[in-house]
Amino acid sequence: MLIKMTVEDFAAEVASSSPAPGGGSVSALAGAQAAALLAMYCNLTFGKEKYARSEALLREILAEAERQRLALLAAVDDDTRAFEKVMAAYKLPKSTPEEKAERQAAIGEAFKEAARVPLAVCRRCVELLALLEKAAGAGNESAITDFGVANLQAFAGLTGAAYNVLINLAAVKDAVFVAECSAELADLRARGAAAYEKTLAYLEQQLKL
Amino acid sequence: MLIKMTVEDFAAEVASSSPAPGGGSVSALAGAQAAALLAMYCNLTFGKEKYARSEALLREILAEAERQRLALLAAVDDDTRAFEKVMAAYKLPKSTPEEKAERQAAIGEAFKEAARVPLAVCRRCVELLALLEKAAGAGNESAITDFGVANLQAFAGLTGAAYNVLINLAAVKDAVFVAECSAELADLRARGAAAYEKTLAYLEQQLKL
Fold first, then answer.
1. Which CATH architecture group holds A21-207?
2. Potential cystine with A45: which of A81, A139, B7, B168 (Cβ 3.0-4.6 Å)?
3. What is the pLDDT of residues B103-142, one digit of tens each?
4. Is A82 an interface residue toward B (CB < 8 Å)?
5. How near does any CA of chain B get to the CA of A21, in Å?
6. Number of C-beta neighbours around residue B147 at 10 A
7. Model confidence over A144-193: pLDDT tens digits?
């Protein structure tokens, strides 16, 4: 499993000439780091008199951020596994018409799965961007840069996963599947960008960027 | 060392209630992942007839990307260490006027270092954004999403590290140091944003985003 590798070995594996792990796994990891930083922002707030009125809200947000952190870490491996299935499908035999048909079907299914995994990452990153928008200003001011980096990583995770949805959808022939995924992706990107921009505006005001 | 932790343990450590590692280390790691993905884009291009004319350019870019990957991984730990020095300085004794003066000086120096480390991360991320702009279109088209995620992570790394420069500069009283760092940071952010936007425009055209 990729998430059992050390941080430096994972980066070396990304850099290597093997086609996986790549941008899909890195984008899922960016989402997981966003969730981790949002959790940290909550954890650094609890028990401080000044923020007592935010405790209930941030307890809820923490629970959700922790759920997203674990799910996005799992997606780091899911993405690479989905990509490996695409490569395996291409290697299926294609000597007879039956084999050719089976291989084409397997390739089509593998690309669908390779689109579904980053689409799920997009959903989770948008969820995180919405949580960040809710949490803005509620937590410990001294962790505001951690909060801000969470916003950056959630948006980069969303956008990077969206690239991976698009490139894999381009290889899928099932027009209904492509239309459904494309519509959902466009909606996710619009909602994610709106939340990201709002939090960015809040941060610029706070940090005098 | 943080980069000797597993990927999942590192994320759990970020999420915890300890104030470090936080957004500074995560931003350095984002830069390292950008460098890794750029290296991957180069490595997946070499030896392919279609891209033979790009080989010399991408060999140079690979060497620089690999240098940046290792330096940015080191910065993951540097950032947390600098933050720990700030916390240690606050804990120095302050019973006598001499102790108070020594403590104030130590705090000032620690904040300077805590600004210098993310400023160096900003420089490296801008370097990567410039390399990405140079490499656009030269490498293996089938790795275009990896290339695109490199652009996203380098920009998120730059911006997140900039937040950390700003928050630490706010605690530094040496006006000359603050002015010099602020001027360099503004220049880096402007150059980084320009390169990022150019690569983004290239990607949008390629991926029909």
1. Up-down Bundle (1.20)
2. A139
3. 999 999 999 999 999 999 999 999 999 999 999 999 999 9
4. no
5. 9
6. 29
7. 999 999 999 999 999 999 999 999 999 999 999 999 999 999 999 999 99
A147: Cβ contacts below 8 Å, ≥ 6 apart: A37, A38, A41, A132, A135, A136, A139, A203, B23
CB-CB under 8 Å, B73 with A7: yes
Determine contact: B28 vs chain A, CB below 8 A. no
| Window A:148-187, CB contacts with B under 8 Å | 148-150, 152-153, 155-156, 159-160, 162-164, 166-167
Domain spans of chain B?
A: 21-207
What's residue A208's pLDDT? 74
Q: What is the mean pLDDT of residues B146-174?
A: 97
Across the range A61-83, mean pLDDT stands at: 97
**How much is the pLDDT for A207?**
85
B200 part of contact set with chain A, CB < 8 Å: no
Q: What is the pLDDT of residue A19?
A: 86
* Cβ-contact A143, A40 below 8 angstroms: yes
φ and ψ of B6, to 5 deg: -75, 160
Alpha carbons A75 and A86: distance in angstroms, whole number: 16
- Chain A's closest residue to B23, CA to CA, is A146
- Reading the block at residue B205, the tokens are 């055209």
What 3-state class would DSSP assign to B6?
Answer: strand
CB B47 within 8 A of CB B84: no
| A175-184: long-range contacts, CB 8 A cutoff, minimum separation 24 | A177/A112, A181/A115, A181/A116, A181/A119, A184/A119
Q: Which of B15, B39, B149 sits opposite A69 (nearest CB)?
A: B15
Contact status of A119 with chain B (Cβ, < 8 Å)? no
| B45-93 tens-digit pLDDT | 999 999 999 999 999 999 999 999 999 999 999 999 999 999 999 999 9
Out of B29, B40, B145, the one facing A7 most closely (by C-beta) is B29
- On whether the CB atoms of residues B130 and B50 are closer than 8 A, the answer is no
Give mean pLDDT, residues A90-97: 97
